[in-house]
Amino acid sequence: MITSLQNARVKQVVRLRQRRHRESEGLFLIEGYREIQCAVDACIGVKALFTCEQFYGHSDTRTLVRRLVENADISIEPVSREVFAKISVRENSDGLLAVAPSPAWPINDMQVPPNGLFLISTATEKPGNLGTILRSADAAGVDGVVVCGSGTDVLNPNVVRASLGTVFSVPVAQADADSVRSWIKRHTLWTIAATPDADRLYTEVDMVRPCAVLMGSEHAGLDGEWLNSADERVRLPSVGQADSINVAMAATVMLFEARRQRGIESTD
Amino acid sequence: MITSLQNARVKQVVRLRQRRHRESEGLFLIEGYREIQCAVDACIGVKALFTCEQFYGHSDTRTLVRRLVENADISIEPVSREVFAKISVRENSDGLLAVAPSPAWPINDMQVPPNGLFLISTATEKPGNLGTILRSADAAGVDGVVVCGSGTDVLNPNVVRASLGTVFSVPVAQADADSVRSWIKRHTLWTIAATPDADRLYTEVDMVRPCAVLMGSEHAGLDGEWLNSADERVRLPSVGQADSINVAMAATVMLFEARRQRGIESTD
Fold this sequence. Notes:
By secondary structure, chain A is of the alpha/beta class. The first copy, chain A, folds into two domains: 8-101, CATH 3.30.1330.30; 107-261, Alpha/beta knot (3-Layer(aba) Sandwich), CATH 3.40.1280.10. Chain A has helices spanning 8-15, 19-25, 33-41, 61-69, 81-87, 127-140, 157-162, 177-186, 224-229, 247-261; strands at 27-31, 48-51, 75-78, 96-101, 117-121, 144-148, 172-175, 190-194, 200-201, 211-215, 232-235. In chain A, strands 7-6-5-10-8-11-9 form a seven-stranded parallel sheet. In chain A, strands 1-4-2-3 form a four-stranded mixed sheet. In chain A, helix 6 (127-140) packs parallel to helix 10 (247-261). The relative contact order of chain A is 0.15. The interface between A and B is large, with 36 and 36 residues.
């Protein structure tokens, strides 16, 4: 059992909270029973599992750990309560923290079905909002979420957490803006920019055609290049206080409107 | 300046985090520039304002404090950094914490316009979710939010915070379930229960008529009495993982669907 806060593996885990270390080491963190279960279901090959039995929260935790132990390539690292408190970002992570190789999720691998519906997060800053966007994308049955920009990346531990593991069930791609624009063009996706300055309401555009909803950052919205290149600019109704709805709630509303227009339980 | 953590007024503020103390003292807490501004705009009569200049975050903070000072009935209490850290629930509350008399918000004072649209939160447990529901209700232009049950009350400091002050702009009522049911009956509101077990989709019901959307708790949903007494039971589409959408997002989606059906920028 690892009991020292100075242990090299403990230090490595703490480093992986930072994007630059995730990128240089090609590894990321997954905390919590549900999230690790979703990752395993999505064939993410967990390399190491740090466990702290005192925090086991979910009744099936031991079954999941056993299932992982049966995989010869994984190292199981029991740690003390103090060490677990240090390596976990969340308060309640069920006594489980996994380290896994970062999936590359290249944009060119993203499947585009004939009537594809996509959400493009160009600059979401808060991990909680990006996580919520992923949950809504999953619930609304989008064909993929594309994350671009140099801000919060989709493998940030708090995004993984806030997504409740849906980051592993929704198709995800990560790429720079130029690659995303080329991909949009190649697949002739209609782009719909969400911006408070638009004249048209989000309910007035056709979201049945192959399309991508573009969301900007919490504070500045979409940048000029995205706004100008979009095929449509739409806004939510503004009957309440300014800013009472945030980027994640706006994305949720737009994706469910697309699902409504498309015939709600078809995922074609 | 108050510098002692043992000061009686400091202890009173800390006590007001608990519902029973809010109820016995008839007072509640409002943290943050925006939230206090919204409360003042809504004619909530702030009685005391605790200030800590080192944390002033908003450029108009001094203007707001001056505006409050001009009110003869208010006591302004500058406090030390340590005291402010103790009394504030949030990390970033702009160095401002107000104590105000709890509005009663009785259900019988809730105005019901001819085509009223209401959201009834029967048992929301997490303050963050109730706050989000209030934000969405504000953005979607509902005529009121009714909070019932003995769980999280609408004056919980974290609800006030998560609502971004919309708790003061949306008409709110708080009442026990029986009073809410009598009020629904008196105003002949059509009740639409959100539950994953419904056959009908939320887009298939008429939300143009005077109606109330009923939301349950995060874990158990609506209780049997609410479910059985509802005029309609509806669900969101379930194309993604089970549970990928939570009570607050579901409420957001339903309220914006009602707004869409009603002609989106009319608030009649």
